[in-house]
Amino acid sequence: MTRPLFLGSEIYRGSSYGAWHPLRVPRVSTVMDFARAMGWLGPEQYRTSPRAKPHALTIWHTPDYVAALSRAEAAQEVSDETRARHALGTVANPVYPEMYRRPATAAGASLLAGELLAQGGVIHHPGGGTHHGFPDRAGGFCYLNDPVLAMLSLRRAGARRIAYVDIDAHHSDGVEHAFAGDPETLLISVHEERRWPFTGALEEDGGGNCLNLPVPRGFNDSEMAEVCARLILPAVAGFAPDAIVLQCGADAVTEDPLSRLALSNNAHWDVLRGLMALGCPRLLVLGGGGYNPWSVGRLWTGVWAVLNGHEIPERLPEGAEAVLRGLSWENPPRLGRAPAAHWFTTLRDAPRPGPVRAEVTERLAVLTARPAARGAVPE
Ligand SMILES: [Zn+2]
Fold first, then answer.
1. Residue 21 is among the residues annotated as catalytic for this protein
2. Antiparallel, parallel or unpaired: β 282-286 and 185-192
3. What averages of pLDDT result for each successive group of 10 residues across the chain (379 residues)?
């Protein structure tokens, strides 16, 4: 078994969707700097993400959309017609300097990941996870849907059955659009109820292969542990996939400004550990949401530590702390104006256990009664 690979790029460094957009914060560059400062990311484990060629994107996106996105970057403006048809140049998906190159780089890494995993292995691609992209339009800060492209690439490289697990605070609507009804794909999404994009209802089963679990505000570590043990792990194990794709959006932790969930970063790492223990030959871990520069950098660097079996120290060494102290949050929301001391000095949050509420157990009971929860997806 070869060591895990990290797919990164310098394109993320300094790139911003705009001064007031949630994606004005550094994310992937933090993980790269932080992991290097910890001595966890030598050149032998790092690959620079290639930028996908336009035609490579059209295995799922429409040629018209890819052309419109590329034109928008070049012109730094869009017509009313393009805005209406492709949802480009909107508040969520604004025109910004790297609006084509950055998502095309994340997509290129996802396409490459499928190829690199042909013979098996483990890859972390924190710039990926843009699960709201649609074939012909942008959505929810996502211009392209790199998880879909990764899954198509995995399949092209020989993985037949793919389990996609999404623990971002938002429902993976674009991925479900791509694979609902596909008996060779199992989709599991755990997301905050009554939150944009307002899809992913408990009843929405995609024809049998989708397990959607909306969770209430304040969703805590104990509840995620229950969801993992009763739903995620049995379903994925029963499905016996050739590849697991984990979308590890970092917006479900308490410190995130966009959601109202209350996980610590341990919750995501525990889901990851559980999936790793299933012994699937191919594992791809993507990023996703996450809008607090400290909680995102810490959560995803911890993902890399878990993938490599590194021990997470209680107190960070000086160099790693310096990376976190060097981060800035332009126009911070209230919770960012007085950063907590542990955002700089630790990688692991204190656990956030709590009661497992009836809403959660009742919804789990509905889902675990379905064949897909045993990995049995109807043809
Ligand atoms: Zn999200």
1. no
2. unpaired
3. 92 97 98 98 98 98 98 98 98 98 98 98 98 98 99 98 98 98 98 98 98 98 98 98 98 97 98 98 98 98 98 97 96 91 97 98 98 93
